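Narrative of accomplishments. A recurring question from our advisory board has been how the design workflow behaves on a single, concrete structure rather than in aggregate. To address it, we present the structure tokens for one chain from the evaluation set, followed by the sequence designed for it. No filtering or post-editing was applied between the two.
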């Protein structure tokens, strides 16, 4: 609903101040009674709007009710999330996304779930996705890149997440190669990139994002208490998820467009600005090998750069990385 989108935009621009019905009706070129009807619709979706005679309308409270509508209103993207699918519950938004992609869902389709009963991490690990506590979403992309470059999309996604956290909260995010967002050394978000491709052509990529937002300590399983955290736990503040999702999508779209026009280089610079432990010693666990090295950043193709005395600088494409504080 473009009119409603602009209406929300106007009300939010004058953040918590009254905006007159006259002004709104001129700006949107609709009648004052049409404005009133839109306000009623907004209230159904959880907005609390106060209307005062002679003063106008103001948003008292934006909803944290996640719905396709609330996700659309106020979303400032050009193509990402134009097709939005919201589920109150899903096994995994990745599965929903794969099904949708096979049914030709368009590039930029976004799937959001309130909870996942079979949330997954990399290598068949479990991703805990407590109801209403975090952002569990998948993005369908049809990028004109080679399959080998798809890992760059994971790093790109990490920059968008880090940006949204840095700008939208008081927390300081760091990216742990390749796909974890850490706050105060604990995992707050993970990214799972899956694709359907042939040798030289990508059919589609699904980028899964899991971000812990409002969990309290006990809302994580026992085994994760030392490793995992949420934005609320680190900042003391409860964050509504709708604006955070929108911010992530805005940063993601910006980074993606930049990647398509200027290549990976600007993404790499951004990534390294959030990259944790660059220049420090890390332990790298590949399929065949465990060794210590200096983490010297990411390569132009997104690989991890690890420097050892014996081998010089090596590119690592697939590994688990341990930071040194984790080793003791
Ligand atoms: P990963 O393999 O890097 O991390 C998985 C590991 O992280 C688990 O083995 C566990 O130790 C830990 N973990 C599990 N749940 C959480 C949590 N909520 N917070 C912090 N640590 C946790 C990371 O994989 C990729 C995660 C992607 C999740 C998104 S959610 C939307 C989409 N749907 C889906 O099923 N997966 C993606």
């Amino acid at each position: 609903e473009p009119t409603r989108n602009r209406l929300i935009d106007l009300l939010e621009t004058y953040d918590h101040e009254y905006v007159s019905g006259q002004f709104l009706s001129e700006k949107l070129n609709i009648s004052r009674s049409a404005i009133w009807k839109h306000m009623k619709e907004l209230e159904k979706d959880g907005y609390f709007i106060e209307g005062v005679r002679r003063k106008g309308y103001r948003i008292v409270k934006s909803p944290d009710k996640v719905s396709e509508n609330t996700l659309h209103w106020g979303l400032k993207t050009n193509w990402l999330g134009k097709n939005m699918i919201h589920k109150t519950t899903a096994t995994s938004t990745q599965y929903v996304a794969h099904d949708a992609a096979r049914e030709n869902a368009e590039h930029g389709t976004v799937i959001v779930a309130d909870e996942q009963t079979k949330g997954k991490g990399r290598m068949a690990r479990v991703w805990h996705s407590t109801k209403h506590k975090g952002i569990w979403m998948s993005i369908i992309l049809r990028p004109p890149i080679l399959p080998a470059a798809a890992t760059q999309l994971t790093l790109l996604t990490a920059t968008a997440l880090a940006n949204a956290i840095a700008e939208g909260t008081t927390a300081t995010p760091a990216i742990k190669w390749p796909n974890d967002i850490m706050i105060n050394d604990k995992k707050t978000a993970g990214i799972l990139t899956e694709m359907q491709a042939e040798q030289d052509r990508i059919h589609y990529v699904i980028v899964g994002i899991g971000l812990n937002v409002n969990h309290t300590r006990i809302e994580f399983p026992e085994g994760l208490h030392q490793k995992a955290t949420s934005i609320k736990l680190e900042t003391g503040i409860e964050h509504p998820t709708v604006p955070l999702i929108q911010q992530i999508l805005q940063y993601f779209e910006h980074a993606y467009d930049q990647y398509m026009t200027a290549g990976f280089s600007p993404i790499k610079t951004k990534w390294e600005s959030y990259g944790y432990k660059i220049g420090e010693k890390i332990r790298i666990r590949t399929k065949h090998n465990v060794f210590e090295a200096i983490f010297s950043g990411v390569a132009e193709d997104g690989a991890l750069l690890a420097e050892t005395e014996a081998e010089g600088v090596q590119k690592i494409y697939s590994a688990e990385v341990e930071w040194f504080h984790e080793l003791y």
